[in-house]
Amino acid sequence: MESIKIKKITSVWIITVLLLFVASIVLGILMRLNQGEVISQSPITFYSNMTTHGLTMIGIWFVAGMAAVNYLMQRYVKTSYTANVFALVLTVVGVVLFWASTFVGKFHAAWTFLYPLPFKDMGSETWATILFLISLTVFGIGWLIWSVSLMAQILKKYSISQSFAWQHLTKNPTVETPPFILITMVTLVGVIACLITAVVLLVLFYAEYFSGGSFVNDALLMKNLTYFFGHTIANEMLYLGLAVIYELFAEVSGRPKWKTTWYVALAWNLSLVFILTAFFHHLYMDFVQPEGLQIVGQLASYLASLPAAGVTVFSIFIAVYRTKIKWSLTNLLFFMGIAGWVIGGLGAVIDSTISNNIVLHNTLWVPAHFHTYNAMGNVLFSLGFFYWFSTQFTAYFHNKKFTNSILALLLIGGTGFLLAFYVGGAESIPRRYSTYPAELSVGVNLATIGAVFATIYLIAILMFFFNITKRCLKILSSTS
Amino acid sequence: MQQQPILVLFLALAGAATIVFIYVFVSSKKAAQTDQGMSNPLKKRFWFLLILFVILGIFTSVTIPKSPYYLFAGETPTKVVHVSARQFAFILSEKAIDPKNPSGENIELPANELVEFRVTSLDVNHGFAIYDDSNRLITQVQAMPGYVNRLQYKFKKPGKYDILCLEYCGMAHQVMKSTFIVK
Amino acid sequence: MLKNIILNIIAISLCNLAIAQSVSSDVKEESNIYEQIYDAPINVVGKGQVSFQELYNQKPLLLALVFTRCSGVCNPFLFQLKENLALKTNDKSFNVLVLSFDPRDNMTDMSLLAQRFELENNEQWFFGTTNSIEELNQSINFYPIWDSIKNQYDHDALLIGINNQGYITKKLIGVRQGHDLDLLIASVNNIFSPTYRLPNKNMLFSCFNYDPKTGENKLGLGLLFIALPAVLTVLLLILISYLVKRKEPKNKEIF
Ligand code: HEM
Ligand SMILES: [Cu+2]
After folding, report:
1. 0.90 exceeded by the pTM?
2. ipTM of the complex model
3. What one-character-per-residue DSSP string does C78-144 give?
4. Atom 5 of ligand 1 has which residue's CA nearest to it?
5. Percent of chain A at pLDDT above 90?
6. Number of domains in chain C
């Protein structure tokens, strides 16, 4: 009974995520087309679409990771079905409110809603800002309760030190913490920290909003909080995807399950610290910020890449190198996703170097690298999970043609789309420009190229969408 | 012209990573049932991490001193320009700008001498990014309400320079622009 | 519960805010930066006639403009300055020049002023007059207004940083606290601090306050807000683990 319920709700999550994903990609392509001067939208339409695209994408891939982790966690501990449903309902309600604020209210302060822009968002409806803040609050509450509930379930079975696998740092550990539990725990701590930051940020926003001007926030503090929240959640959702890979990669490849060792434990514990301090790299160009924190930002950004990447990438290599394994769409997506994550990470490390950042900050280099480890990284992790999940319960035969064409389209579309961003960044094209000034006309051509390749990517996603949704609908209508 | 080497470095690294991934993948495809996978994985992992760590360490120690905060320290600028950004324009002036009555003028700056921009914002966050006459971003700083960021720079080439806003500031962000001349 | 804590913090902070916001804003502080100060001939008590240039070439200067018959800000201003600088006895990187902008002041007046503040034997402090006060005032945009009814000048307290090449590096208007003074001293010594705070904004929620003495940033109240989430998360973690552990025996019975 329990297992049917979790199967069904996971199916609902998958369908929701994929639907919203397709819609957001369409918005993305529209943005590229507008920048390419193929179509012509008003700036406000462009920027409210950009806001919708950004937050929807962050939201869906966060909940996709959470839903996957929740599903797989059933293998180790019982999870709360109620919390899962609650999160789903609040996510859907949140999306409705949020989309109303952008599509109807024309809220367009970007998904980072950097203070005090939401209060000086000319050209949008007066109620749009408060509706946006409410929608964020709805997301925040749903996700916070979900994460806390998952964490509580882990802690019922494992003590704090076990859930962080600290016993693996000693010589002969007696209890084994599965890597999945370790990574999930580390990630949940980060997730909860950044959701609490969001709460603090929202309270400060509300305080100013309702004080009628007598209370004014400090722009630097708000910016620090914004990126603590924004950067960290974007980073943690990737780790949710990694938890899934640690659990499933060996399994679907028909290989022995990965084990927690001392270096795996150490690496992930270190990641926790680095991830919570890496967000300072968003403030490099705020010379107001103390130099000490700028350097912490660069070091943490570098170091954050070491343990997680070093351990995960190497584990994948060990699992695959000269080893006969069962390749399927699931582990191929995982493998390709890891490659995308590494390449995006290289772009990120380059950008997180302060002396480079001065010519890359807020150019297209930024969307270039984060789209690499999202569209060609994290998304593929989640798609891999979706595919694996849906083929567990429905008749399935390996369709090589389907697999190959999806992968080829993703690879071609993704690479072209991303290269247009990277070259744009190197050509000093600013990010978040609805159209480019005449001097920067290279940006226009690059945008058109980007739109074409993004459409190829979209075709792959649509093929995937129909295949998976059909299966998930079957799971929903089945009774066992 | 800092960007070209950056792009080349990135493409080289990305290319190398791709080759490694393809190589590993192909080795799996070719592998016979009996192949035992990687020999001594623990040792190799250790070296892999160590090398990565050393490379990043070198990279850090080379790049940190080049951070904008440390350039030109100890020199007195020959000229100061006050900058107030607002939705959706930059106000530049050699005199201090009164936030209640902001006004600016055309700016001419000397080449090869240290110039200081005192950048702030009158409303939301903006970016203050300087583009040279080949439309390349050469330096930037944020314009934050309530704070004055000091950006120092020595222009090498005389010519016309553009200022663009590099922090999203609302519906006319993309047309927020100003210029100045270096002689 | 969390919300309560935060609202409490905000409520307390709001009370302080009223105080914090009373600092006046002045763009004049940003004017004349990196302009050369007028090279006026100066009559220094105990030293005689020197050029301004000789003084600032010797060491960077903090220039305080006062007049001896002032019944207003001048005395508290000098007193504060002396007190603040007394805390920095080992900082000999600059000198202080107290200069009269009142043509009525003569060397005796200035000498008496020095004695009144017990600074006549302090090597770091110069007291003096100049007969080129008009030009000097012009070069620093300082315009005291003569009020013939009160028989007083209406003027701001003004402290100016001049580096050893004679450039104005920073101005402070009003009687200012140690922190701003430190910024001024750093600036005359050409130490680059990449930012200044506009004086009118509330300082309360700022994360950091730059401390030019050490070149570091002191933590501000705002930093609490950045650290708060991490701290709360750890507390939450401990709390949850405590709560679920208490229920554990019950769970075991079920299984
Ligand atoms: C092929 C699919 C996608 C397309 C065509 C696309 C397109 C775009 C475009 C054109 C922008 C604006 C770039 C600019 O600043 O000029 C953008 C921004 C963004 N995208 Fe995507 N994107 C795609 C996939 C994704 C994915 C998978 C994510 C997952 C997290 C994502 C998250 C974001 C975010 C967070 C922003 C920043 C919005 C902002 O600047 O406020 N995108 N995307
Ligand atoms: Cu702007």
Report:
1. no
2. 0.94
3. HHHHHHHHHTTTT--S-EEEEEE--TT--HHHHHHHHHHTT-TT-TTEEEEE-S-HHHHHHHHT---
4. A28
5. 63
6. 2
